[in-house]
Amino acid sequence: MSQNILKVKLAQGAVACGLWVTLEAATVSEIAAVLGYDWICIDAEHGGLDFHHIQEHLRAVRNSNTVPLVRIPQIEQGFIKRVLDLGAAGILVPMVRSAADVEQAVRFAKYPPWGIRGVGGERATQWGLSLNEYTRKANDETLVIPLIETVEGGAALDAILDAPGVDAIFLGPADYSSSCGHVGEWEAPGVAEQLLAFKDQARAHGKACGVLTTDIANARLRREQGFQMIALGSDTSLLIRASVEALRALKE
Prior knowledge:
alpha/beta, 16% strand, globular
């Protein structure tokens, strides 16, 4: 198992640009790797991606410098084990509300004695050919990143950040706004300030903080604010933004 490049970059304080992957075609991830994205997040929480799609996206960035993460649908042992066995370099854990939540995810993502992940001879271990090398390094290299998307998660953030095995946190502005009673808003009143406070908490604990951005100006702002994991958009949002811009340019 090679060193997790994203983990190294975050530890060094570098900014890492990512793409949120929601479409079925693995060509999306292949293009992201060719363009030099630092990471992709294959979203298995929302949308229609199944294990076959996840596997194809992971294949598309194999042997590149683009680190593949999977947003799992829930904290479930079997799902976490399978995406890691398929070759994911880490997981994003949705709707984390407590340290106990993320501690459970870490247990499922790590081999004994740290966790209870089962040993399988799948893609991650090159079908058993690199079993010894992979299992020796996996606990150190596999990223576990909780998503802070609720008021409860925000209130428990210090404990979440102190949980062993947490490498960074990622913020969900829309879900956090929804949790505050403002469903459908990206950043409800007061949420923008709260997200910055969460980012500062993470930095105080020596952890990187990530966020999904809405456009180039927002991405630049997040970089200036000190966010390290910056998702430049999803595959669909980037396609829509470019298409709208092109249509407006020719129809005006």
